[in-house]
Amino acid sequence: MTKQEKVDFVIKTLKDLYPTIPIPLDHKDPYTLLIAVLMSAQSTDVRVNQITPLLFEKADNPYDMVKLTVDDIREIIKPVGLSPMKSKGIHGLSKILIEKHDGKVPKTYEELEELPAVGHKTAAVVLSQAFGIPAFPVDTHIHRLMYRWGLSNGKNVVQTEKDAKRLFPKELWNDLHLQIIWYGREYSPARGWNLDNDIITKTIGRKSVINDYMKTKKS
């Protein structure tokens, strides 16, 4: 199989499996998505979706958020982990949105990444899911699968993002990044992985990955 044939196989398989694509983090607008994505760092979407309603009940826009203290925010979001850093980020970025952006979430990487606690991946998720701007946010699932499928060298997430953008058509980036995440969770997890259930890796996977899997299965 050529690399292009592998890419086409991935696109078709994911489209068949996920014709409609659920959005992992509950939100109602760009601001609530930005806050939810920030909270999801080193946490799970399930946990974040349990906590965001408690926070958004008190403040679901930057103007109400800055009325809360950093300690108020930290107390509410404590269960998602890293709450001291995240609460400062949420309060700080809300203040900047009011001062610099009329309370609105900006639509560029540069402006988003200037906000406290907002890195490249968070910015990419917001651009993609809130504004429909083509982006390819790379999380651990995408990084792992792009390597397993022989579509990236696994060096780092920056390289994986470059490879994904180079290989996949731009108009599919927003769908594909979510489809790959769902596929990784359901069929190709890091732990408890069963190759028999993982049709994509079984069909196009990197030989060394499949060989390693077979060795561990035998031992």
From TrEMBL:
It comes from the Bacteria. GO terms for molecular function: 4 iron, 4 sulfur cluster binding; class I DNA-(apurinic or apyrimidinic site) endonuclease activity; DNA binding; DNA N-glycosylase activity; metal ion binding. GO terms for biological process: base-excision repair, AP site formation. Keywords: 4Fe-4S, DNA damage, DNA repair, DNA-binding, Endonuclease, Glycosidase, Hydrolase, Iron, Iron-sulfur, Lyase, Metal-binding, Nuclease. Residues 39-186 form the HhH-GPD domain. Its EC number is 4.2.99.18. Binds 1 [4Fe-4S] cluster. It catalyses: 2'-deoxyribonucleotide-(2'-deoxyribose 5'-phosphate)-2'-deoxyribonucleotide-DNA = a 3'-end 2'-deoxyribonucleotide-(2,3-dehydro-2,3-deoxyribose 5'-phosphate)-DNA + a 5'-end 5'-phospho-2'-deoxyribonucleoside-DNA + H(+). Its cofactor is [4Fe-4S] cluster. DNA repair enzyme that has both DNA N-glycosylase activity and AP-lyase activity. The DNA N-glycosylase activity releases various damaged pyrimidines from DNA by cleaving the N-glycosidic bond, leaving an AP (apurinic/apyrimidinic) site. The AP-lyase activity cleaves the phosphodiester bond 3' to the AP site by a beta-elimination, leaving a 3'-terminal unsaturated sugar and a product with a terminal 5'-phosphate. PANTHER family: A/G-SPECIFIC ADENINE GLYCOSYLASE/ENDONUCLEASE III, ENDONUCLEASE III. Belongs to the Nth/MutY family. This is Endonuclease III.
